[in-house]
Amino acid sequence: MRDPNLNVSVRSVWKKIENQGFKFYCVGCNRERRQSPPAQVGTPKFFAHILISTAFFSVLAYPWLQWKGFFAFLIPVAVVLEGLYRMKMRAALVCPDCNFDPILYMVDRDKAVRQVEETWRKKFEKHGIPYPENKKRKPQKEDLLTSA
Questions:
Q1: How far apart are CA 81 and CA 57, in angstroms?
Q2: Domain range list for the chain
Q3: Cys-Cys crosslink for 29: which of 11, 61, 98, 134, Cβ 3.0 to 4.6 Å?
Q4: At what angle do helices 44-60 and 68-93 cross, to 10 degrees?
Q5: For 59-104, how does the pLDDT look when each residue is reduced to its tens digit (9 = 90+)?
Q6: Is 7 left (phi over 0), alpha (psi -120 to 50) or beta?
Q7: Do residues 25 and 98 touch, judged by C-beta distance below 8 A?
Q8: Are 31 and 96 in contact (CB under 8 A)?
Q9: Rounded Cα distance, 70 and 67, in Å
């Protein structure tokens, strides 16, 4: 008979932390944000979604494709569901208050800054407060080359 105190590895601390999601502060408005844990791709639930969706589309296309339809829809359905999971996660990262998008910031910094500024301008105009203009001038590439 096994001693239950020796079997410590069954209860892992990492699984509890992994499923809690994460907290972070928005860069644009310094508000605390909470992000739910991402959908687990590769879990039995994900594969069940793929099989159910594939079975549904195979039944619809059975008069034309017979049993080949199951295999014809298996990979495309998996790819579409993976894309939907990723789009859902990306959309959840955008701050609802200041419209800051961290993915856009990594790809195109200037566009992300303009997007946040436009959001803040609209909020200031809505309350009748003048938007504080940034007095600092960003150094241009030409300035950096001529100063050397």
A1: 14
A2: 17-93, 96-136
A3: 98
A4: 130
A5: 888 888 787 777 777 888 888 888 888 888 888 888 888 888 888 8
A6: beta
A7: no
A8: no
A9: 6
